[in-house]
Every structure is written in C-alpha cells, then in structure tokens.
Here is the input.
Amino acid sequence: MKIFAWMVGLFLAVGLWAEPPAVGIWRGTLEVPGSSLELVVKIAGDLSGKLDIPGKWLADLPLDGVMAEGNRLRFELKADGSVFEGRVEGGRVVGEWRQAGLVIPLALERLEKAPEPRLRPQTPRPPFPYRVEEVVIERPGVRLVGTLTLPAGTGPFPAAVLLSVAGANDRDQTHSGHKPFFVLADFLARRGFAILRLDDRGVGGSTGDLLQSTYPDLAEDAWAAAEALRRRPEIDPRRVGLIGNSEGTAIAALAASRHPEVAFVMMLGGLGLSGTELIEAQAARLARIQGYSEEEIRQGLDRMGRLFRILLEETDDAKAAERIRALMREPGGRPLPLAANLAAPGDPEAWIRVYLSPWYRSQLRNDPREALQNVRCPVLALTGSLDPVAPAAAHLPAILTALLAGGNPDVTVSELPGINHLFQTARTGLPAEYGLLEESFSPRALVEIGAWLAVRFPPG
Here is the structure.
C-alpha cells in the first residue's frame, strides 16, 4: 500500500509539473487583406513567448501576456495591438487572431525545431579567413559584450570600434534581416583591420538601460572599447579609431574630443546639427513627403518646439509629464512623423517615458559641432544623397565648418549618390524602404571606406 501511495503521489507530481501542451514551436499562415504572413510562435516553459515573421525579416518579437492553461493558449503583441486566442487540438493550435477590428482564423502546426533564419544576400557566411572572438568590457554599472574580428597573422593591426544608430541595437545593427555592421566588419577584417562591434546597453549580452544613459555615458563606453583594443598585443595602440552611423557619429565625435588618443573618426550619415534642429528638420521633411500641408507642418513644429522647451527647462519629471500630457490633449492637426528609431509603441505614456529619459534629453542638448571643433584626428564624413534623416546639404557643411574651425588638418567629406541613411543603395531613401531592399551595405561605400583607411592606416 505504501508503494502504491508513493507511485500515485509521483504520478500526481509529474502531472502537476508537466508543461502545458501549448509549450513548443508553432508555425501558421495569417491571411491578412491583400497578403499572407508566415508566423512562427515560440512558447517557452516559463510561459515567455517570441514571434518570428520571416517574410518581414522580423525575429524574436517579444509576446506579452502569454497564458497557457490546460489546452488554451493566449498571447498579445502589444507593439501593434494584436491578440491571439486558441486551443491545442492534437498537433495544432486552432484559434483567432484579432487586430485593428479584424478577426482572422489562424491554425498553427507544431514544429520539432524553429526554421533556420533567412539570410540577406550580403550576410557573411563561414568559414571566415579571420579570427572571431567574444569580448566583454566592464564599465561602472554596465557590462558591454560584443564580437571582435581579428585578421589572420600576428599584427599589430589598425582597429576600429563600430557605434550604432539611435535606438537599442545589437552588435550587427540588425534591421529587417540586414546586418550592416557584420557586413562592414567582415569587409574590413578581410583587408587587415580589426573591428569590434558591441551590443548596445540593455541589448543581447550587454547590461544597462540605453534610455537611462546620456551621450557622455555612451562616449565613455566608446572610449572604453577603444582602450580595450589598445591594450591587446595584436593591435597597434596608435591606430585605433571610431566608426559611427547616425547617432554613433555624434558619440564618436564626443569621445574623440575628450580622448585625443583616438586615431581617427569615420562619420557615416554624420550629424552636424543639434538634436532639436535634427529632429525638427527630420519631422518637417518626412511630413512634406507624406503630403502634409504647410499649415499642418507649421502647427506640428510649434507643438514640437513647446515639447522641447518643457524637456530642456523643467527638471521635475512629474511636472514635465503633466505638462506634456496637457500638450498632447490640446486640439490640433495630426502629429508630425519621426524618423528616429525610438522603439516605443504607439502609447502616449510610453512616449512620455522616452521623452523624459536621460538619453532623449541628452540628444536634445547635444550639438556635435561643439565636439567636432576639438577633434584633431583624421575624419572621414560620408553621407548618401538619398539620406532624409541627416541630409548631406545640411549636415556635411556643418561638419566640415566645425572641423576646420578647430584647426583639424585632415578632413574628407563626400556625398555618395543613391545611398540612404543606413548605407544601402536605395530608390527613395525613405525609412519605409529599408526592409524592402536586398542590399545590406553599398559595395561602393565599402570601397570608399576601405580606401580611406588603407591610405592613412595601412595594414601590416
């Protein structure tokens, strides 16, 4: 009897601890008006979930409110207001996907393992003719993790740290399946340059919170990464520079202005205007492209200017939040579009949290021209002719003027025809086009970058 009771208890315990049947990997096709979307849903044993949309080059989108009780499965994708509810029936989950007032039947089939991710044509594939190493950099209160590509041989090699666009980016600056920093690192490593690319704060292996960081914080992160390279025996400490894209160019300029040991700065889609000027110009330009009237743009810029004054003048976050809510409640035209990748959902309170963050306020206060006047190392500034975020006509002259005013003896600025802000060969240059392009990084731009480096910092 004791053995029987023990076995019953064991069976009950196993039953209590068994994973819900919804745990696993599921794939289905969502028939939305005008198209079909393949979905891959991944539900873990701790009831966390992720969603891949391979056709849109999206992977590991976090699912919210995952519930798996009995045969039921429910989850949300708060980023776009979607909800799925269904029941496990054998090897399928049968249910409904609700989004924007639509109710769409959706059946998911169980998979043994997740499909291999699709790769863009330029994504490098092994074997590589260089060494690849995981790197950890410890900073006060934050750990930065990334990938170092080291050319074959003993060196000492010239080297660079890659600094990403605005928003929380992984070490490859991944977007829509593109990995432009991986492509750039691969190109330069094959030509004798060591390249370190890092996960941003709070992304991938790195700790910390990007929104709670300021531009000076990020500049010191960049310098810490350069210092880590300078201490390595395979790397020439006199030839370590910084390569930034968009916001990364402002961080590179600030780091180089504070640390004259930085050997060079490369500004890809470089910023030459203050944060407020940049955001206002972006918003107005995109609004005109999207058909806003000049009166709508004027009203939108007025509201944007009032928002910026609150953020720059009000030091009490609670008071600033109330003033922003009041501004949002005012009647007026449609808000202006933003080009910045803030990764905040369409929720006013979420936007307020972004606005009040140290990172956003630091962006508004930053003026790259102040740092550039104190940069003495060689600088290359490349901007695409189809860049609507940091247009060449506005930013390249500002960058050049600031560098020359500071007495920098080695400055090269160039506008590349047909290139967008992320250095893809483009048709329109608009952010909505980024994911539609198959190219990850313009081969012409890669050649220009490699040639400039090879003349000033020849490998070997």
